[in-house]
Design goal:
Blueprint lengths: L4 H23 L9 H26 L9 H21 L11 H19 L2 H5 L12
Helix pairs in contact: 1-2, 1-4, 2-3, 3-4
Length: 141
């Protein structure tokens, strides 16, 4: 049994804010293209907001599946959908807070490092340390 839609959204927010925020803090100085923190955290915030919308889309699509769930690999491959959408919006200049474009190399390294790190954590150690997360959407009762 997987977390409820609400639990998945809360997990996504928590993981992107905490783990994604810490990773962004560490990798920004070494990213290609010499980005500043304003740029990288704006990209992270964009991924967060669009990710919440993606969760709604994924939830709707899962209703067509018999087991109402994705195979774990689909969670990793969703990086393609989400990354492409964020990149297109960045290229179109519709992301508020960014005066200039984000270099593709900067975006790819940042996005993939954060995505893979969070995916590994939520599909590995987090399931061990937070057993209740997997049942009843994380509720205690």
């Amino acid at each position: 049994m997987l977390p409820t839609l609400n639990g998945r959204i809360q997990t996504r927010i928590f993981m992107l804010v905490v783990m994604g925020g810490l990773i962004t803090l560490v990798i920004t100085p070494v990213l290609p293209g010499d980005p500043d923190y304003a740029m990288t955290y704006t990209v992270l915030a964009t991924v967060l907001v669009l990710g919440i919308l993606w969760e709604l889309v994924y939830h709707g699509l899962m209703q067509w599946r018999w087991e109402k769930d994705w195979p774990t690999l689909f969670g990793l491959l969703n990086a393609i959908n989400e990354g492409l959408l964020v990149w297109v919006l960045l290229e179109l200049g519709v992301v508020p807070g960014l005066d200039s474009g984000v270099p593709l190399s900067t975006f790819l390294v940042m996005f993939l490092v954060i995505w893979v790190s969070i995916w590994i954590w939520t599909n590995g150690p987090m399931r061990i340390f937070n057993v209740r997360w997997r049942f009843f959407g994380g509720r205690l009762v």
